[in-house]
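Lesson 9: reading folded outputs for more than one chain in a single document. The general rule is that every protein is listed as its sequence immediately followed by its structure tokens, and records are never interleaved. Here is the first one.
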Amino acid sequence: MTKFEFVVPEVVQQLNPMDCGIFVIKFMQLWSNGGLCRAIANCIILC
């Protein structure tokens, strides 16, 4: 049986219950450009 490595990237956590849509949009933009290869900083989300 082959074992798979489980990797959890360090990403920004939303600080309130209202920003989830913005986080989803940003994650999808980064993912669609070849994967989540870049970290998402608060300034990217909030600027």
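And here is the second record, again sequence then tokens.
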Amino acid sequence: MNSFTGAIASYILQKHGTQIRDVTVVFPGRRAGLFLLREMASQSSAPVFAPRITTLDSFTSEITGIQQGETLPMLYELYRSYISVTGFSRSFDDFLFQGNTLLSDFNECDNERIDVHKLFANINDLREIDDLYSDTVLYAKDFILSFWQMFIGNRKLGIAAGFGHLWEHLPSVYNHFTAALLSKGKAYGGLIMRQAAQSPSLISVWISRSGSEHFYFAGFNALTRAEREVFMHFKESGRASFLWDYDDYYVNDKEQEAGTFIRENLKSFPPPADFYHSHRHLFSCYTEEKKIHVIPVAQVTDQARYLTKLAEEGILGGNTAIVLADEKLLVPVIHALKEEMKANVTMGYEVRYTRAFALTDSVMTLYRNCRRSKKGNFFRSSDVSRILMHHFFRNYSPQIHSIHRNLLVNRTYVKDTELTLPGWLNEIFTFSGTPAEFVTFAERITVSLYSELHQSGSFTTQKTEMQALYEINQQLKGLRLIIEDNKVAIENLATIISLIKKSLAVIKLSFRGEPLTGLQIMGLLETRALDFENVIILSATEGVLPSSSQSNSFIPMGLRSGFKMRTPSYDEAIFAYNFYRLVQRAKKVWITWCTGQGITEKAEMSRYLLQIQHAGIHPLHLCPVDNRPVVPPGNAISVQKDEAVMARLEMYRNGEKTMSSSSLNTYIDCPLRFYFSYVAGMKDQDEPMDEDMDNRIIGSLFHKAAELLYGSKFETGTTVRTKDLEAITVS
């Protein structure tokens, strides 16, 4: 099929011949570069040296000489700047959440080249706005004025005092923080991009020394202000070309949000005329025939099961991509595909879906809920039970079952010294150090577990889990070194556990697979600049595509609009482009969405499907599937009302036993369960004790307390009046 990367390869080979080694191609992501190299190999008539292929982030980091910093050291540097500037007395633990939000806001400010002194200005009088924002367009000034009118009013009422005190320090915190980062040669992505954007002479010198004769920027869409300035510097050098991936359908229609950014890019950075004309067919694919199948399913996981049906029909072979709008579907999708199917998972398998992470998380939960005293650690029995019943410890089942039955049942807490466990399991329950030492402890646990699984012969049968344990161990080691090297002071165990969880959340396990052929499983963002003949999009549900989630920020929406920063409509335009661009050159498309049957709020089909349907550019073929679960026949359970049963029931009639509200609810819900629980007196002996009081327990306690309080004061049958209760209260 005709593809965007194929057109780029053809154009570069035509322009540069065998000298493509002198060319640099910049993509928004790395995967498109692999497909470009394949296209060049297939189109080149003779062996040639490949061009240099990179991403914009790597490119600007090389130009500026500034490396991408790690999050935790930058957060601690931000904390030190915050304390130094504000003089506030505050621990790093308390600052952590606020620090993450500040770091995100500073990153966005730099990407958009925002003057932080104007954004974080401390306005006390509305008349100051005209002077401070004199160079701001009128409509933007209206947004800013609206925000400060509300803010000043709230500040006079004392509502926004705390926020205003923080706000007025942010410009100085920003200056102190960024200066500290740059002095170390490390920074976050937005600051690196800003440094490149505001240094045209640096870019000119770098271009002259780069060894590249020409630069191609390909497949981009939404550009930040800093990125646009970098592009402009390259454009002015006369050695850059810009290749945009789009379709006339959504670009020529100014009402189409999918073309919002491309329309602007085509004006500022027009592509080479000969590239557009020689590949004209690539930009009018929505006029060609497409088969778009829409499959509504009842439950989210039904979408993965639908893939089995497509596999049976032979659809999942060849040039096919399964695109997950909701990346949490990765695990069900992998399990739905047959082992013999050759699939390449580009997005990686998140370690948080593994049993190794589940155990690590359970250990962290154990110590987060632990009660510490001079006598030792007291663990919640449910936390201990969750660890002991983990899949990894099934070889110890007899011993663990005995401990569970004799020690954990009907107990809320258990002391660490009471746990006498087989093998190395005792090690899990021995930590008594400082919060900073907990990382070392977690490292040691993962090493012991890895050795245990290796010795038990699980190395071949649980390769994914072994790999996950290794990656978790390496991430913990890296976190420990960061804390030690930066002398990060952490006072609370909850903080270190939060840092560990955030650190582990970014780990993705790489799958082996052919990255260029066969079935591709990827996220929506990874499809940029790539084309597939068959496309299967899962979770095209409103709220997922586009996503309705919003990140935390200190910058109110009014100021965001006034300074033309990212807003929900900006993000929705990005989603729209990624969707329409993915579909534009596909011949056959299958799109599933979850109807939400069985949940409280019924879901809706993605707006993009409704737009296609309303525009009439392509018919949507509705393909309903039978989502009814197959329920095997069960054996009916019944209890005959013989004399013994009736005698027990009679005890409720004659007053020997009383009916509680919870027992009545049980009877209404399931008479059979009522019989087993209240008549026969049967209970699950292995059921752990509830740690929280439910309504049944609260009701029992209230009735018992009332009986003890009033039983000795009043005889049975006495009418209790208000004055009688008041007399008891006084006494």
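What the second record shows: The first strand starts at residue 23 and ends at 27.
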